[in-house]
Amino acid sequence: MTDHSAQTLHIVGGGMAGSEAAWQAANMGVQVVIHEMRPKVETFAHQTGNLGEMVCSNSFRSDDDEQNAVGLLHWEMRQANGLIMTTADQHRLPAGGALAVDRDPFAETVTARLKAHPNVTVSYEEITELPADGNWIFATGPLTSPELGKAIQAETGAEALAFFDAIAPIVYAESIDMSQAWMQSRYDKGETEEERTAYLNCPMDREQYEAFIDALLSADKTEFHEGETAGYFDGCLPIEVMAERGRETLRHGPMKPVGLTNPHQPDVKAHAVVQLRRDNALGTLFNIVGFQTKMKYGAQTEVFRMIPGLENASFARLGGIHRNTFINSPTLLDAQMRLKRKPNIRFAGQITGVEGYVESAAMGLLAGRMAAAEILGQELPEVPQDSAMGALIHHITGGAEAKTFQPMNVNFGLFRPVDGLKGGRRGRKDRYKAYTDRAKAAWQAWLSNFS
């Protein structure tokens, strides 16, 4: 294994969290080695050996830093010179109020910037054990290799928890029938015309919707492997699982028809609408929003071609499903994200039980700074709980109920209430603004420790 000197930080995994951790620590003057097993050891979901590769979606979700918790997290990462956010801004695609990126150039830029950093080395190898000495961050993500998974399980003494992430299908734009589909963001959201037309919409009447639900329910699904259970994370439920929960579920979820007007038939209100979002800067690829699935490939093409406008759809990638590994962080990690039984090891990213690219990168940002401060002998005050970063890290390192611990996106439910503000839907706008104002002040105060 590479240099074990007391001054080197070893980061295992070059995804969102590992890349961000490396960038933050390197910028604080620490020598960093990123250990990445791809492309030598492949995973089910990755296509390349690039650092920061996006596998599930190309969206970082809402960019609204005043009314949305994930948008606030974007803001905090930009304030901290986050590699993932600055690169995302560089390769941004129109997506209404969301931050979507051109995934290949994004990962290529993340890789190039890290490799060009004088304090960063990338070592392509698989790490299969938890080292006894040296400074380490394990950011191996949802696709932690089986060997390393066993080592983590042996060390923590806890049953490794697993759930499944599902991948939505991607369609070639040229194969979509635009005499039936149209471009419009829900409620015409967005500053520019491009953003107001960031989504492609396919309408369904009641009969088409009912037939679609029937086909979903009866389609061939992939089987689970022995020992795997279908404990889905609710934010990434396969559409057929949603359909099984009730015939109207999809109409109130990813297929809701609200905020959209069909220019081909302006007087006809669609019963349901399937939305597709641009998946690359060229606009040649679109992913079907919220359509993660575990249907078999043949069934997918049949069922998805029932969607009006997609009768002749050609797929760049069909949906899939993969196992996702995460640890019970509330019982295993201290407030500095260190493994209590082996404090030379930190965990970061999705393996800690945060869900989503942004949340993973955010935990990488914190772990990178914490590890670098420790190596440099600096005292860091606790991450303020009122910031989005603080709300998340507090949740995974003790705020969550260990017995029922499940992966979590950042959300205002993780924030401490603001005194004097009324609850309920009515007061939501003022409440969210109060949360974000308070968070920004707390985060900037914490960052001033690094100047």
UniProtKB/TrEMBL annotation:
Cofactors that this protein relies on: FAD
Class of the enzyme per the UniProt entry, highest EC level: transferase
Enzyme Commission identifier(s): 2.1.1.74
Superkingdom, taxonomy of origin: Bacteria
MnmG N-terminal domain: residues covered: 9-378
Reaction(s) this enzyme catalyzes, per UniProt: uridine(54) in tRNA + (6R)-5,10-methylene-5,6,7,8-tetrahydrofolate + NADPH + H(+) = 5-methyluridine(54) in tRNA + (6S)-5,6,7,8-tetrahydrofolate + NADP(+); uridine(54) in tRNA + (6R)-5,10-methylene-5,6,7,8-tetrahydrofolate + NADH + H(+) = 5-methyluridine(54) in tRNA + (6S)-5,6,7,8-tetrahydrofolate + NAD(+)
Alphabetical list of InterPro entries matching this protein: FAD/NAD-bd_sf, MnmG-rel, MnmG-rel_CS, MnmG_N, TrmFO
Residue sites binding FAD per the record: G13, G14, G15, M16, A17, G18
Keywords (A to Z) from UniProt: Cytoplasm, FAD, Flavoprotein, Methyltransferase, NAD, NADP, Transferase, tRNA processing
Localisation per UniProt entry: Cytoplasm
Transferase recorded as keyword: yes
Family designation: Belongs to the MnmG family. TrmFO subfamily.
Function, as annotated: NAD-binding protein involved in the addition of a carboxymethylaminomethyl (cmnm) group at the wobble position (U34) of certain tRNAs, forming tRNA-cmnm(5)s(2)U34.
Protein known as: Methylenetetrahydrofolate--tRNA-(uracil-5-)-methyltransferase TrmFO
